[in-house]
Design goal:
- This protein has a single domain, classed as Rossmann fold (3-Layer(aba) Sandwich).
- Helix content is about 30%, strand content about 25%.
- The protein has a 6-stranded mixed beta sheet, with helices on both faces.
- Helix 2 runs parallel beside helix 5.
- The radius of gyration is 19 Å and the shape is globular.
């Protein structure tokens, strides 16, 4: 390995988290009992991790866009650099869609695209974590018996000079459930996903993908009872992070 390649490898170690850490929670609490419990838990987590947090409630479909746009534009005006941002979206939903309190819908991709490396200068090359607590369909998972399975494959990467960033790197999407399935929420205790995530992120160290594996492990091991029937649920993680992201 050349000295140049060695320097590049060192650069890919971890994201710099020494500057501003920002969080935005957009949560529709109307007809979503338990949501305030989730908000409270998230606020405690952000305080423990050193994030500056903003919470907005009961948004129309357009309101989700407007609040995220304001969040992005305010970051562009900050004198100090931003190291990382969390955006938590909690509402009723379907696959790829959130429902506003006005009954209208907004595509998740419209919200995700607002903070890409192309559309957010302040966050270019910085980790952007989206956490989505919303149903992605109506299917319910009764669980399956585990059988051994193996998979493998190779991925080949290429780079060009001068260095450029792909538009969609440095983004982490974390969904409460997989495509097509229900996301469970208790009317008093809050949502299973948010409560598990907060507990793991607050009380454990390690890079975020390891922490999310712990979240998935805990959720997968638990049995939820709905209408007297056992249910299984697990989050889905989609990552284009280029470096390790440590929250502490």
């Amino acid at each position: 390995m050349s000295s140049e390649e060695s320097e590049q490898s060192t650069d890919l170690d971890a994201y710099d988290m020494s500057h501003a850490l920002l969080a935005l929670t957009l949560c529709n609490t109307k007809d979503r009992a338990g949501s305030e419990t989730d908000i409270k838990a998230l606020e405690q987590m952000y305080k423990a991790l050193g994030f500056q947090s903003t919470v907005k409630r009961n948004l129309t479909a357009k309101g989700f866009w407007e609040e995220l746009e304001k969040f992005r534009d305010d970051m562009e005006k900050m004198e100090d650099p931003v190291s990382c941002c969390f955006v938590v979206l909690m509402a009723h939903g379907e696959e790829g869609i959130l429902l506003g309190v006005d009954g209208k819908t907004i595509m998740l991709e419209e919200l995700f695209s607002m903070l890409t490396n192309k559309n957010s200068l302040a966050l270019r090359g910085k980790p952007k974590v989206f956490i989505v607590q919303a149903c992605r369909g109506e299917q319910k998972d009764p669980g399956e018996v585990v059988r051994p399975a193996e998979s493998g494959g190779n991925v080949f990467l290429s780079s060009e000079q001068p260095p450029k960033l792909p538009t969609y790197t440095d983004i982490l999407h974390v969904f409460a459930t997989v495509e097509g399935y229900i996301a469970y929420r208790h009317e008093e205790d809050g949502s299973f996903f948010i409560q598990t995530l907060v507990d793991v992120f607050t009380n454990n160290t390690g890079h975020i993908l390891d922490l999310l594996t712990e979240v998935t492990q805990r959720m997968a091991a638990a049995d939820l009872i709905e209408g007297g029937k056992p249910r299984k649920v697990n989050p889905e993680v989609q990552s284009t992070l280029r470096k390790l992201l440590y929250l502490r």
